Amino acid sequence: MVSPRRPFFRVSTQALGCLFRGCTHVPRSTLYFNSAHRRLYSSPAAKPLRILFCGSDDVSAASLQALYDEQKRDPSSIASIDVLCRPGKPYGRGLKKIREVPLIATAQSLGLKTHMRDTFTGWDLPQVDGESINLIIAVSFGLFVPPRVLNSTEYDGLNLHLSLLPDLRGPSPVHYAILNGYKQTGITLQTLSPIGFDHGKILLQAPVSIPDPEKITRGALQDILIPISADLLIRGLREKVYLPQTTPVEPILPENKILALAPKIKPENRRLLSKMTAEEMARVERAFGRVWVGIKFSDGGRKRVILEGLETVPMPAEMSDFYATHEDKMGIFKSLTIVEDDGETRKETMVAMMKAPDGHSIIIPAKGDRALLIL
To answer: What is the pLDDT of residue 255?
Structure first.
């Protein structure tokens, strides 16, 4: 018969040495207890947080609101919140108008002190009532927080990322989750790394199933992830994962264990190519918004054509027959020359398009057994 495990009291080496030296006080941070029913670890009491929140978009605005609500709920845990945004960008004719980041409006509505910087060079963290910022939180910020700044805080920094890192490292994780046809994505709370974006210690993760993955758009998926990310941030603060002794969690890896990147979106990412299937073309639009193709006209002129409202449909029998026989027996097809130019080589592909049964939409062929319906 195995005897039941007895409760025990364990003393760390540091505490044991203190007892041998005749100390009358042993720091609580050096003691921890274990019993047959529960395990309790004591840790140094965390100081009230003086946070510098860095962000820009709707994702960060929701996290800031959650952070503000948490401060109101428990003022002893969060002493202050300062906000850092990047300056607005000029736009419009003559670049005379300024487009501010959404986070500005949220910060101002909450009455929070706001700073604007496009670089950390020559800038020191602000003092709050004579006290230093002790934690940086960055959410969709887009500006690298250098080691000098991180080292000036007691608890370094935290970052929310809308993917299950290390998968989809980069500034566009939601876009590429859709582009890659993912059925699951998630949120990661990590430390801010001094060596680069998205290379921090993974502290918490929340997997999220993607509903209707072949129809959902980037905006719809982001709307699902926003409140989950804000909740994960608050959970991390309540669990004090920013303390140095926090152990990283094992990352949740993709089923195929192949990691992808989520780089910055460029105009070329929105371009449809003849090698794509209809499903891939539709994903490009759902991930990146309006897409385009290069068209060559009969007079030799070329132009970009913007396409919106893409759907996939079964390849019409008439289109399959045309590509099998190259005969337009019904006179329903018009030719379209697609131009693909990568700067070094130019490829021209002739495709036949036809009107859809509704009389307004256009159907063009794609690789595979489905076609693309342009509304």
So the answer is: 84
Checking phi first, is residue 149 left (phi over 0); if not, alpha (psi -120 to 50) or beta? alpha
The Cα–Cα gap between 168 and 191 comes to 16
Tokens for 238, please give them: 């309540």
pLDDT in tens, 5-37: 333 333 343 433 443 334 433 333 333 333 233
How far is residue 147 from each of residues 123, 144, 169, 262, measured CA to CA in Å? 13, 9, 20, 24
pLDDT, residue 3, reads 41
- Contacts by residues 323-327 (CB-CB < 8 Å, ≥ 24 positions apart): 323/352, 323/365
Residues in Cβ contact with 298 at an 8 Å cutoff, skipping those fewer than 6 apart: none
Mean local confidence (pLDDT), 173-202: 97
Whether 286 and 326 share a structural domain: yes
- 0.85 surpassed by pTM: no
118 & 200 share domain: yes
Q: Which domain, by its residues, includes 31?
A: 8-41
Sheet hosting strand 291-296, strand order edge to edge: 302-307, 291-296, 333-341, 346-355, 362-365, 370-374, 310-314
Same-domain status, 70 and 212:
yes
Tell me: do 284 and 360 sit in the same domain.
yes
The answer to whether residue 257 sits within a structural domain is no
The mean per-residue pLDDT over the stretch 307-313 comes to: 89
The β-bridge relationship of strands 127-128 and 131-132 is antiparallel
Q: Indicate whether 130 and 218 sit together in one domain.
A: yes
60 forms bridges with which residues in the sheet?
A: none
